[in-house]
Specification:
Layout lengths: L1 H5 L13 H12 L10 E6 L2 H10 L11 E8 L9 H18 L3 E6 L4 H11 L5 E10 L22 E3 L5 E6 L4 H6 L11 E6 L4
Antiparallel strand pairs: 1-2, 2-4, 3-4, 5-6, 6-7
Helix pairs in contact: 2-4, 3-5
The structure holds flavin mononucleotide.
The site of flavin mononucleotide has 9 residues, from strand 3.
């Protein structure tokens, strides 16, 4: 939990290289990820060549930190290994997140640089690393020893959690839309609504009276 809750995107690094042992652990974490039908449709390109790291910054507009980072991992989906069609990006995202969390637990800093589905970035990375058509680069992960500190960001938001029935807050936060049998006492209790007429199963707007 600590590594998950404290992870932040780190975009400044010291010059210290990432050890081979740490890199191996990151890749072990990546390959421990779940994947649809256990297809494991991932391939990882490890980049520690300064010239190649610089090349990436020319095809990815938000990757300037790679000029400083000692290492990048390009997570690619290999479509031939996809067990159930269409799941490769989810499988590779699970592997990516495992890398970020594992790095955090080791005191390393990372940032996920999105590539797919932005066509120019996919094509740019493809060209640099001669990635064949049956493989798609999902992202580039910059990895290094942090040269910046960031506070954990508390994003826990009860309004995003819906027990059994979807309750969406209006933008003005004065009403919520509910699609429920309004006899659902649990929901009425949860939102602290005292007087509610009986409704059939339909989408209705009711006042938001959160305690
Ligand atoms: C799909 C995806 C694409 C991202 N692309 C970039 C990027 O191109 N450049 C960058 O600096 N950060 C990128 N990020 C990092 C986000 O900006 C960052 O995760 C977000 O602002 C939340 O901050 P945190 O990671 O510190 O919690 C990306 C993150 C995701 C998940």
């Amino acid at each position: 939990m600590k590594a998950i809750l404290e992870r932040r995107s780190i975009r400044k690094y010291t010059g210290e290289p990432v050890s081979d042992a740490d890199l191996k652990d990151l890749l072990k974490a990546a390959m421990a990820a779940p994947s649809a039908g256990n297809g494991q449709p991932w391939e990882f390109i490890i980049v520690n060549d300064r010239q190649l790291l610089t090349e990436i910054t020319k095809v990815h507009p938000y990757s300037a930190m790679l000029l400083q980072a000692p290492l990048a991992i390009i997570v690619c989906g290999k479509l031939d290994n996809e067990r159930y069609k269409g799941y490769w990006a989810q499988d590779c995202s699970a592997a990516t997140e495992n890398i970020l969390i594992a790095a955090q637990s080791k005191g390393l800093g990372t940032v996920w640089l999105g590539v797919y589905p932005v066509e120019e970035r996919v094509n740019g990375i493809r060209k640099i690393f001669k990635i064949p058509e049956n493989m798609i680069p999902l992202n580039v992960i910059a990895v290094g020893h942090p040269a910046e500190k960031k506070k954990p960001s508390d994003r826990y938001d009860e309004n995003r959690i819906h027990f059994n029935h979807l309750l969406l807050l209006n933008e003005n936060k004065k009403h919520i839309w509910v699609h429920v049998k309004i006899t659902s006492v649990k929901i009425i209790k949860h939102y602290g609504i005292r007087k509610v007429k009986k409704y059939r199963l339909e989408t209705i707007q009711i006042p938001y009276l959160k305690n």
